[in-house]
């Protein structure tokens, strides 16, 4: 693995808080691939949480000190330049701590830089509206309009699988909206976040406007989230944790939750075989399946199910699995060894219950798992019911499209879905019947552009992600009503 020289990065050696207290302890951060110690970062206790919340809330309460829009634009512009100047370092850092292959981590960095630019674009076009009052005798002589204001302190809890870009999606909109923000990265991947916050400071943002906190316990994290000074809670992670935290939010705290799904892809009779195979391979095995909208369930006409499963298995077998920091690697490790064990247990269960193992189905060294394809696992298998969050794709043969749609829609999760075919009328008909906030035609379920709305439905989440939509959530529309007094 190339040397990152992490010891020279001050962001990993001090608390990224407004006040420099003594750390509660140190958290070792290891590579998920070879277990190498990357860094030890200072952790924060409940006392640090209180200090961070107090600093952020005091900042928001003093309206005269709010950052003016031109200053926010200038800070974000400098931040984008700083990120661009660290492209190689940022990609290698994300690959090292999170396990996403370097080639995909490079794309993540490009998206992160574009995300900052998108925040600037949204900020420049951020406007209210004129309200059509004065339409009755009782409201005559009045004019009303709205202006955008920051909602208050933002608390963001992030996930491991995109350690830089998820932070950008949660933190940059808060900075653009003028909200003080406290961000808690995943314990497995805090380095990209801490480095990002350090770059924000270098770009000119005063520390109290963005604080990063690695908590020493779940209790400290829960205190951060549930405090009444939190105006908006942004969460990316498991449904179990997200819904639990939402139930404990203080009255008045708004929130957005992004969980996962068991994404379905429906192949119609006329799908383009080779192009669809390439798309499903990417959508199912990208980042070892550790993506909340990763392709997991593929419904194929019965006469084509085995040929497609066999071809997908061959494609899976050809993927290069290994060191995420190598430019040749296409599939990296799982984030923890316990995830490898869980995924293997689910795979073996599905095979024992009658699913046919086409490819993979075995553990590899260094927390890696062989890209796996299973044909017709039973509907009650965990692989058919729950998000696997691993490199496993299940193929289900169907004889009637209605049954495929019914099975695709049968779970309590719903996020993004896909349909492959050539007949636009068929594509539209199936797309309209599939549950999901987005349906891709001839593209995999993991496709995302950061300007798009990104929303989990049912158990898959609450609210709408995507940078423009997150900025909207982090602001309020304050209405001004002007009454014109008689001139005489």
Report on this structure:
It is built from 15 helices and 20 strands. The chain has two domains: 274 residues, Aldehyde Dehydrogenase, Chain A, domain 1; 179 residues, Aldehyde Dehydrogenase, Chain A, domain 2 (3-Layer(aba) Sandwich), CATH 3.40.309.10. Helix content is 38%, strand content 20%. The longest helix has 23 residues. The strands form five sheets. The chain has a seven-stranded mixed beta sheet, with helices on both faces. It starts with 24 loop residues before the first strand and ends in a 5-residue tail after the last strand.
Q: Which short descriptors sum up this protein?
A:
Aldehyde Dehydrogenase, Chain A, domain 1; alpha/beta; 20% strand; Aldehyde Dehydrogenase, Chain A, domain 2; six-stranded mixed beta sheet; 488 residues
Radius of gyration: 24 Å
Gross morphology: globular
Helix content: 25-40%
Number of E-type strands: 20
- The name of the CATH architecture of the largest domain is 3-Layer(aba) Sandwich
Strand order of the largest sheet: 12-13-14-11-10-16-17
Largest sheet: 7 strands, mixed
Find the CATH topology of the largest domain.
Aldehyde Dehydrogenase, Chain A, domain 1
The CATH fourth-level homologous superfamily of the largest domain: Aldehyde Dehydrogenase, Chain A, domain 1
Task: Give the DSSP E fraction (strand runs of 2 or more residues).
Answer: 15-25%
What is the CATH C-level name of the largest domain?
Alpha Beta
Task: Give the class from helix and strand content and strand pairing.
Answer: alpha/beta
Overall number of domains: 2
Query: Can you count the helices?
Result: 15
Span between N and C termini? 81 Å
